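Quick one:
INPUT:
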């Protein structure tokens, strides 16, 4: 295994090289993002370990540049940041891993082995943050009853009561055709496929109490 490190802290950089070599892993490094960006296109390595917090250019910026250059070498962030935003941003822009600098050396080596096999790796201490981020994203993307107009909400509530289009039209003082258009719009906005699904969603969420 050959590792290339981009990290501006000499002490950490040299210590990591020594650690990896003690595990029979070949390692070399760049002391700055600029040096790394110059050298990487001509390198033959298995993984790039990229620091996130660097003064001249952030690791995220380096990651974005490397991806625009179609670099196919797996890039793993190695950082002290436990911020959800950093984790999400790095994975979103193509990092194949997000590891912490204070992790156990053997765990680091195991994680690098997994990257070689094609896995996306996240430090143990960050997995709960990743789970939360994914949960929040799913919640954010959930179809929202609030996206309906006032009239569509009225129609949806009538649908949830099991009323036909004719009954709904009479109750709301509109035509059957208008009810049909509202129902079609409701299905589209809520990403549903039937009136039954509308009724179930409205009832479960208690939107029409």
């Amino acid at each position: 295994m050959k590792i290339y490190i981009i990290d501006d802290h000499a002490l950490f950089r040299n210590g990591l090289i020594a650690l990896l070599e003690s595990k029979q892993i070949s390692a070399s490094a760049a002391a700055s993002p600029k040096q790394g960006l110059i050298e990487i296109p001509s390198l033959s390595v298995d993984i790039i370990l990229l620091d996130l917090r660097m003064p001249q250019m952030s690791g995220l910026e380096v990651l974005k540049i490397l991806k625009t250059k179609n670099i196919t070498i797996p890039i793993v962030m190695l950082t002290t940041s436990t911020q959800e935003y950093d984790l999400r941003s790095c994975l979103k822009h193509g990092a194949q891993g997000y590891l912490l600098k204070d992790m156990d050396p053997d765990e680091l080596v195991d994680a690098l082995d997994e990257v070689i096999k094609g896995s996306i790796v996240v430090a143990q201490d960050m997995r709960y943050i990743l789970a939360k981020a994914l949960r929040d994203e799913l919640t954010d993307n959930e179809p929202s009853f609030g996206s309906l107009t006032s009239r569509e909400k009225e129609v949806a509530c009538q649908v949830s009561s099991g009323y036909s289009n004719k009954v709904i039209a009479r109750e709301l003082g509109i035509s059957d055709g208008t009810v049909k258009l509202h129902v079609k719009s409701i299905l589209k906005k809520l990403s549903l496929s039937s009136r039954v699904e509308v009724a179930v969603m409205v009832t479960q969420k208690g939107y029409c109490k």
